[in-house]
Here is the input.
Amino acid sequence: MTNYFTEENSAETVINAMSDDADPRLREVMSVVIRKLHEAVKEIEPSQDEWMAAIQFLTATGQKCDEWRQEYILASDTLGVSMLVDAINSRRPSGATENTVLGPFHVANVPESPMGANLCLDGKGEPMFVHGVVRDLDGAPVEGVKMDVWQANEDGFYDVQQKGIQPEFNLRGVFRTGADGRYWFQAVKPLYYPVPTDGPVGALMERLGRHCFRPAHFHYILEKDGYDRLTTHIFDPDDPYIGSDAVFGVKESLMAKFRPIDDVAQAAEHGFEGRFFDVEHDFVLAPV
Ligand code: BEZ
Ligand code: FE
Here is the structure.
């Protein structure tokens, strides 16, 4: 007997419309999505106007996307879904460095630099000496790790957001660890910055009374065969937004030590003229 659609049997009716021959994983995923969506609609009981507002939000989100802008990823980030998917896909043994969001500003194929290079190509910003050791779970240094680092400048912008203002590859570097697992480079003090707010996601955040800032951070990707690829950040624990990251990427274990150093002799050792920040953080890679 045909089961016609009713308010009560809505989800089952739609789920049963799928063919038994459909891809099993797709059936599984869509069954959950349909069940939860119908559950949400039953709880919310939207008016026709409210449902149309939801459709218009999704339409505007799609229309904002182009080669450079992915408004759906921003929606996923600001709703905490990117961090949840990341958490599910990067469960690691205790002691291993935790993952966090990749974000939209990674650039592939940045030229490799010798260890110790200065990421800052325009001389702007407060200097930092960033360093630490890459280890395995037993505490042994890991040699030959490819470390890809990128950061925003002192005004909170990545080079790709300021083409023609910042030099290409400003505040980006790719390094490889030696036998002692150590890494070190020069950089500048990053600033907190807003996620893009000129689209429907920004408008929604505003209506929800949410701010749009990410606390100051450095991005890292650490890769070596035999180890789980690590995509993470280190954060400035004193940042005003450290407790309220707009994309929920902060983890207690990813706080680095940002120590201001006023000592002229120490500054000279690194080629700095005056005060600088010493930033220390070790990374622990998990085996695959
Ligand atoms: C970032 O840290 O680069 C970022 C992450 C998520 C959304 C926007 C920016
Ligand atoms: Fe970032």
Residues 103, 105, 152, 214, 217, 219 surround fe (iii) ion (ligand 2) (CB under 6 Å). The chain has two domains: 1-45, 81-285.
